[in-house]
Design goal:
This protein is of the alpha+beta class and 171 residues long. Helices cover 36% and strands 34% of the residues.
Length: 171
């Protein structure tokens, strides 16, 4: 019995359909996973960059706030529609106003600086100690599965930043 070697040789040339489908499926799975991981890495990178910008912004604001407090002769917390604090430095009046997108610094009612922050600002003045405090608060956000507990009227708040500065005193 003689085998036909030509048939065996022709059958082994090229890929079988099943082998081709398995190879393409594995490549598609690897490519999809890589695209997902790259997108997640880029999103994480953007969140970290935003956090660094926010941190730098808060430090710039903190330095300016302390400098204004130290050079002030008097300070007072203004109550009204927007929380604010005012420093009197001789003829110069410096006011910090909480606005929708952050905080504004006004010198004699002229805009002198704006910092973007997320959250709500509160100002307090301890006149006996000569100290002003500025606190940035942010409400917790509920996921779709969470609800307020019975009797709870608002979400708990988290203090992100607290700045204390002495009025009219250098460190």
């Amino acid at each position: 019995m003689k085998r036909d070697t030509r048939l065996v040789r022709e059958r082994r040339r090229g890929w079988m359909l099943v082998e081709l489908l398995i190879t393409l499926t594995l490549i598609a799975i690897a490519g999809g996973t890589a695209v997902f991981l790259i997108a997640r890495m880029l999103r994480t990178s953007q969140v970290q960059a935003d956090a660094l910008v926010q941190d730098r912004t808060l430090h710039e604001w903190e330095d300016q706030f302390r400098q204004d407090s130290r050079s002030a002769k008097t300070a007072r917390v203004l109550t009204g529609a927007t929380p604010s604090i005012q420093f009197q430095q001789g003829e110069t009046r410096v006011t910090y106003l909480s606005v929708t997108a952050g905080i504004e610094r006004r010198v004699n009612d002229q805009l002198a600086g704006r910092w973007q922050t997320r959250g709500e600002w509160q100002y307090t003045l301890d006149e006996s100690a000569g100290i002003v405090r500025a606190e940035l608060h942010r409400s917790y956000e509920l996921s779709s599965s969470e609800q307020l507990t019975k009797g709870q009227k608002e979400l708990p708040r988290h203090r992100l930043l607290r700045v204390e500065a002495a009025i009219g005193r250098t460190p």
